[in-house]
Write a structure and sequence with these properties.
Belongs to the cyclin family. Cyclin D subfamily. The chain is mainly α and 220 residues long. The protein has nine helices and no strands. The protein has three domains: 2-50, no CATH class; 61-153, Cyclin A, domain 1, CATH 1.10.472; 171-213. It has helices spanning 2-16, 37-50, 61-71, 79-92, 103-118, 123-130, 136-153, 171-198, 205-213. The two termini are 37 Å apart.
Length: 220
């Protein structure tokens, strides 16, 4: 297991770093065994063959630049389009409905959505430009999911005021961001429930409010 861990760490360093650490520098944390470079190389080849040499994760970000470029008449896309696309793609991570789509289909749907919102491109024209790369039916379905997401979660800024969400600097930051998002959702639901209860004039208004604010009990 230690050899496998060191091999994976070495492969990750080779994929991300411009200066790869020495083999012995990867084994400084009280390692029980110290492996030679030749032994480590054999394990790296075993890992690569198991993964079929697919070391780079394919995401919608792998396609979005090209799609925006094509929708902008083969010109550099607008900054607002790029920022809006980043925000939309980041938002799709929160929805399980996007798991059925390929990264290229999500990227095409996002590019079409952003192009229609920020430029004068017609949706049908934008769709015709990208249909040679992706299936039209799948992209149309993904666009519908994005529209539903924007209606449920509020309007998505894709104009000149769009901003790139800050990236957490650590795993703890990721957890904090998720916790903050969860609390924000609870706040929105609670405020919606309170506003709904205030619109009714029935005598049991306070009782209903207490029921809405009471935490749900789930029997396991």
């Amino acid at each position: 297991m230690q050899l496998l861990a060191v091999a994976c760490l070495s492969l990750a360093a080779k994929m991300e770093e411009t200066e790869v650490p020495l083999v012995f520098d990867l084994q400084v944390c009280e390692s029980k065994f110290v492996f030679e470079a030749r032994t480590l190389q054999r394990m790296e080849l075993l890992v690569l063959s198991t993964l079929s040499w697919r070391m780079q994760a394919i995401t919608p970000f792998s396609f979005i630049d090209y799609f925006l470029y094509k929708l902008n008449d083969d010109k550099t896309p607008l900054r607002s389009s790029v920022l809006g696309s980043i925000q939309l793609i980041s938002s799709t991570i929160k929805g399980i409905d996007f798991l059925e789509f390929k990264p290229s289909e999500i990227a095409a749907a996002v590019a079409i959505y952003v192009a229609v919102e920020t430029t004068t491109v017609d949706s049908e024209k934008a769709m015709s430009v990208l249909t040679q790369h992706v299936k039209k039916e799948r992209v149309m379905k993904c666009v519908e999911v994005i529209n539903d997401m924007s209606l449920v979660g509020g309007s998505i800024k894709v104009g000149s005021n769009a901003t790139v969400p800050s990236v957490p600097q650590s795993p703890i930051g990721v957890l904090d961001a998720a916790c903050f998002s969860y609390k924000s959702d609870d706040t929105r639901v609670g405020s919606f429930a309170n506003s709904s209860s205030q619109t009714h004039t029935s005598p049991s208004r306070s009782t209903k409010r207490r029921k809405l604010n009471r935490p749900c009990e789930v029997e396991l």
